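User: Sequence recovery, please. Input:
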């Protein structure tokens, strides 16, 4: 199959590289010429484990190319994926579909012979209908089908998720499109990954329902953590105790500073807007969004409480800035509102992240960016773990204690056991485990 991937970001680049690795002939297109120039030189502009090697191997094999010429790539393609961004629209939180619709217009003019146009971007219910209308209006004689194929990969484990997915969802009732989609994902049949065919609107809703459900699970355990702190219980044990029930499952039950990232925050809000537009308000998701928003600043108060309530003039060291480990993505990272709140309370903030500092710098003014965890801890009154990078799991406490003004660790990811830390003379605060 010849594939054009429109949008070469976290999703487009991973999907393009993986489809090439499946044996398809892929051209990844982006309107950001700097990104394409870097990729053509063999540089991968994002941090995603294994991606640089996968891109290099498939480019070498001649199955993966990069360019800015959208019409050229579309003209010869059997399948054209739209993998552009769908951020929150300023002001109302609806998904901003302008990139999707612009791409659809550009694609329309270049279509040549039967082509399947696939929305891989996360788009609200009905967007596929609109994409179809745009293409039909621009080129009434075009032979095409518009398919919804939402992406479920997680940054940090994106290649594995793409190649060994829990499921692939394909929304189409068009028989020819179904054949093309089956061919594209054929290697997955060998892995027995379920490919679920459904109608287009259902596929679009599945993506939002999945993200909203996962965000709900996280938020639920976060509220249970707050209660556990008040009643002297251990949320880790609660999570284990409920997660062993197969009907609940153990994933996404890690209490922490609240969800962030490029998907959950914008997708939950966009789903709320869809609900309101269709007079079907989603009260549970409304509560999830509100509880999660409030939580991020509450984490700053937790840091203050660990220091007796006063942060003015104190230095706070923050470890981990990206919204999760193994990515350089800073979009909606919980570290941003947390650090802002620490600064509002009068603290001076030092920070270290293994990959995210370049992206963080423009977002976090007045933060001192450091070269490693120990440099970060210099003269700090508290060290706060915000992102659970592997390298923060075995910190040298003796070295930290020497560097710090006061030995206080606030572990917002519960990566340590309390006694592991307190035996080094540290005051230790975590999430949902107070009183232990
Ligand atoms: N990042 C994730 O983990 C993830 C997971 C699942 C789904 N999604 C969804 O996938 C979509 C893409 O997300 P992302 O994180 O890859 O975004 P991104 O911002 O990293 O990448 C989008 C790319 O599209 C390019 N672009 C925009 N308009 C274009 C056009 N007309 N022609 C060519 N290129 C164009 C941009 O320059 C950018 O490089 C979003 O809808 C997102 O919600 C993301």
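Assistant: Recovered sequence (436 residues):
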């Amino acid at each position: 199959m010849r594939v054009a991937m429109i949008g070469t970001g976290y999703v487009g680049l991973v999907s393009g590289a993986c489809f090439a690795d499946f044996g398809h002939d892929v051209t990844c297109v982006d309107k950001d010429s700097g990104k394409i120039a870097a990729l053509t030189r063999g540089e991968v502009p994002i941090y995603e484990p294994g991606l640089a090697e996968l891109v290099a191997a498939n480019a070498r094999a001649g199955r993966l190319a990069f360019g800015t010429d959208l019409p050229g790539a579309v003209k010869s393609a059997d399948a054209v994926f739209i993998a552009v961004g769908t951020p929150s629209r300023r002001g109302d939180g609806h998904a901003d579909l302008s990139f999707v619709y612009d791409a659809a217009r550009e694609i329309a003019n270049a279509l040549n012979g039967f082509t399947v146009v696939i929305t891989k971007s996360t788009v609200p219910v009905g967007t596929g209908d609109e994409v179809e209308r745009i293409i039909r209006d621009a080129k009434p004689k075009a032979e095409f089908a518009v398919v919804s194929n939402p992406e479920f990969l997680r940054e940090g484990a994106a290649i594995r998720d793409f190649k060994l997915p829990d499921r692939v969802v394909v929304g189409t009732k068009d028989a020819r499109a179904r054949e093309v989609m089956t061919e594209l994902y054929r290697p997955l049949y060998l892995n027995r990954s379920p490919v679920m065919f459904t109608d287009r609107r259902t596929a679009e809703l599945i993506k939002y329902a999945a993200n909203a459900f996962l965000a709900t699970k996280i938020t639920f355990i976060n509220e249970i953590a707050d209660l556990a702190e008040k009643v002297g219980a251990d949320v880790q044990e609660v999570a284990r105790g409920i997660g062993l029930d197969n009907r609940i499952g153990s994933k996404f039950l890690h209490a922490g500073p609240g969800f962030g990232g490029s998907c959950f925050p914008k997708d939950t809000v966009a789903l709320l807007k869809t609900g309101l537009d269709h007079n079907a308000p989603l009260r549970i998701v409304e509560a999830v969004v509100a509880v999660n928003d409030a939580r991020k600043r509450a984490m700053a108060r937790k840091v203050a409480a660990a220091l007796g309530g006063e942060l003015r003039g104190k230095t706070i060291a923050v470890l981990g800035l990206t919204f999760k480990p193994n990515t350089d993505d800073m979009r909606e990272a919980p570290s941003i509102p947390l650090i802002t709140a620490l600064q509002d309370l009068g603290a001076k903030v030092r920070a270290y992240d293994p990959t995210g500092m370049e992206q963080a710098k423009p977002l976090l003014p007045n933060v001192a960016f450091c070269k490693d965890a120990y440099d970060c801890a210099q003269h700090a009154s508290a060290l706060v773990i915000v992102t659970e990078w592997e390298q923060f799991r075995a910190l040298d406490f003796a070295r930290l204690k020497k560097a710090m003004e006061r030995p206080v660790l606030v572990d917002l990811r519960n990566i340590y056991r309390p006694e592991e830390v307190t035996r080094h003379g540290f005051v230790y605060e975590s999430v949902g485990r107070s009183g232990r």
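Residues 6-12, 29-32, 35, 70, 83-86, 99, 102-103, 106, 121-122, 151, 153, 155, 262-263 surround nicotinamide-adenine-dinucleotide (CB under 6 Å).
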